[in-house]
Amino acid sequence: MEVILKQDVKHLGEKDDVVKVKPGYGRNYLIPKGYAIQATESARKVLAEDLKQAQFKQEKIRKDADAIAARLEGVKLTIGAKAGETGKIFGAINTIQIADALKKEGFDVDRRRITFDQEPKFTGDYVANINLHKEVKVRVPFSVVAE
C-alpha cells in the first residue's frame, strides 16, 4: 500500500513523501492518526500541484532574501551602551537592539533571525549573523561604543 505523508514520521519519511507501507500499518495507524492519506491518483495530482506552488513561493522568498543580503553587505552598525571604565558594558547587547539599529538603516529583520558568534559584553567590534532564509545567511559587523 502506498501513502502520502502529511507530516514527518520518524523512521518512515518526511512530509509529502510517497512511501510504501504494509496495508495494516497504513489503514490502522497512519491514516486514522492523520499522519498520511492513501496515495490515489487524484491525491498524487494534488500533491504534485501543491509541491509546484510551494516551490514557486520558496523561489520568490529566496530571491527577496538574496536582494536584502546584497543590500546588507556594506552595512556597519554602531550601537551605544552604558559602559564602565574598563569597557565592560552594563548588561549586554541583545538581538532587539541589533534589529532596531537595522530598522533605522531601512532593513526590517526579525530579531529571532539574529544570532551572535560571541556575546557582546564589552565595547569593541562584533559580528551579528542574520539568517534571512535557510540558504541565505549574512554576517553584519557592528561596533559597541560607550555612551
Write the layout of secondary structure elements.
Blueprint: E1 2-5, E2 18-20, H1 23-33, E3 36-38, H2 41-72, E4 77-81, H3 95-104, E5 114-116, E6 124-133, E7 136-146
Can you give the helix content as a percent range? 25-40%
Q: State the separation between the terminal residues, measured CA to CA.
A: 68 Å
**Class by helix and strand content?**
alpha+beta
Poorly predicted tracts of residues? none
CATH topology call of the largest domain? Ribosomal Protein L9, domain 2
Oligomer: single chain
Q: In CATH's first tier, which class of the largest domain applies?
A: Alpha Beta
What is the N-to-C succession of helices and strands? EEHEHEHEEE
For this structure, what is the CATH homologous superfamily of the largest domain?
Ribosomal protein L9, C-terminal domain
* Arithmetic mean pLDDT: 92
Question: How many strands in all?
Answer: 7
Radius of gyration: 24 Å
Q: What is the overall number of helices?
A: 3
Task: Trace the largest sheet across and list its strands.
Answer: 4-7-6-5
Q: Provide the number of structural domains.
A: 2
Shape-level CATH architecture of the largest domain: Roll
Biggest pleated-sheet summary: 4 strands, mixed
What's the overall geometry? elongated
Strand content: 25-35%
